[in-house]
Task: structure prediction
Amino acid sequence: PKLLKAKGMVYYTQSGMTINNVRLIFLGGDAKMDGALRFNENIADGAARVNVQGNISSDAIKQAPEFANLAALTSRLNGNTNYSATLSLRQGIPELTVLSNLQGMALDLPAPLGKSASVNLPLRFESNVLRAGAGRNSGLQDQLQLSLGNLLSVRYVRDISASVPTVLRGQIQWGNSSAWKEPTDNSVVFQAKQNTLNMDEWQPVLNSWMDDDATAKSGSPSRSAMASYMPTKIEVQAQELIWSGRAYNQFQASAEKQPKQWRIQARANEFQGTADYRAAQDGASARVNAHLTYLSIPPSLIEEVETVMSESPKDMPALDIVIDNLELRGISLGRADIEGFARTNTSGTREWVLNKLNLTLPEASFQSKGQWGGAAKTAAKRSQLEFTLQIQDSGELLDRLGYKGAMRNGKGRMVGQVGWQGSPFSPDYNSMTGQFNVSLERGQFLKSEPGVARLLGVLTLQSLPRRLMLDFSDVFSEGFLFDFVRGDVSIQQGIASTNNLQMKGVSAAVLMEGRADLKNETQDLKVVIVPEINAGTASLVYSAINPLVGLTTFLAQYVLRKPLMKSNTQELHVQGTWKDPKVTKKDGTTDAKPSTPAKPAEAKP
Result:
């Protein structure tokens, strides 16, 4: 930095200079210089030095071009402070020591590095020559050391033979009081050890530093030299790490820069895994490959993920993530395989392409692909998924999802596509559209609270009056035993409708058409109960109803033309809420509320 308005006595000789009571302006404050320097490289005179005392201001530091590469850091200084410095030459190479208590200078940083202007925080900076060769530019190395009380310690060993020094190795210790250990390779190691590390507070600071680095001239020699100061190894320990409002306990992480990527290992009580991060290069986007043995995602973190991925898809890396045990909103979802990338679609808007969003459980496997986004910035991003759900045990699956006691057994699958406004993590029933086919075999609907599952409530018939259900000879206290459940369901703006839903029991079949409001949990259904009287009836109910034909045409063609079957067939109209339905028989009788269950009929052997 420039020395301004210097006034005093300076004496020069061939071997050095003497400075006597020189007063000047340096970095926005008054300064005083006294002492002497020796120029002869063959003379090592450690006693020859210049002493400086003065005051500097944060405004002058921010404006000095020499600190332009540190703008993200200097922008967080505010105020002025006194300092003392000592400058000497060792074989013609400058050595500098600076001391200050930083009183009067505020640091706008999160704890524990932040401080107000009134607080003292001892600062010490030293640069010393480590090795000098026979010539001025032969194998020159120096060492830089910086400390902030017992909070932060920084040390670099540099090659200073060229016009722009470059770092050979270094160590940054934050909250780690262990002694300096010479790195075994040419690396810069960052070590942090904190009781509490609040990333919610540090994230804006880190983002500003990264933005500043991105806008700088990356190809300039000074930028390349500055890059050598950046850590190539990172070790972090915290008893508590706070991120997105959530605490991760006993957190440990390490990262190492490799030729084309970062290799990361991390663990806490709440998760554990490894990841590789490859920065964007040669036109290819950045990419993260991760394998986690365990991950728990609470609702608060889901909202954070949705916000980040929705607002900045262009900045997000492509993802290829495997999670052996995923817990979402407190529900264990087994193994998760996620693969996707961000792109600009044909309409010019950004969207996520999900090549794979799969879940694997003992009782089921879910496979899907689709998109998320594709809307204007002010509009809600839309999720669109094509999915296949292979079910080994419907009862166990519903138990896992929180609907305990709703079903027993049941094997089959659901195939279709569905979309809604919002992220894949948070289905929105108001905007949901799509269609799917369901096919289950050999299961049983159990006695449970009505409406425990939005679609299950449409299928179970458990909220129909018990006396109507007594028309099933196979019904007993636990619910409806079925050979199969199958049909097609379409959804438009949260309204699910079907015209070919079939359930086959031991001695009767239940056929449905109508619609259900998934958000308001209301229904308008036509339910037909067809007794199984003979083999002809059995073959009839085993025939799938074509959704293009529908239930009404199917009944007219195959059921109502047979007098015996027609006389034993019951037709019900179910309206109202899932919890308190209004049931009307075709003959006009109505039962607005389910009656107290009578003793059910026993299933005949």
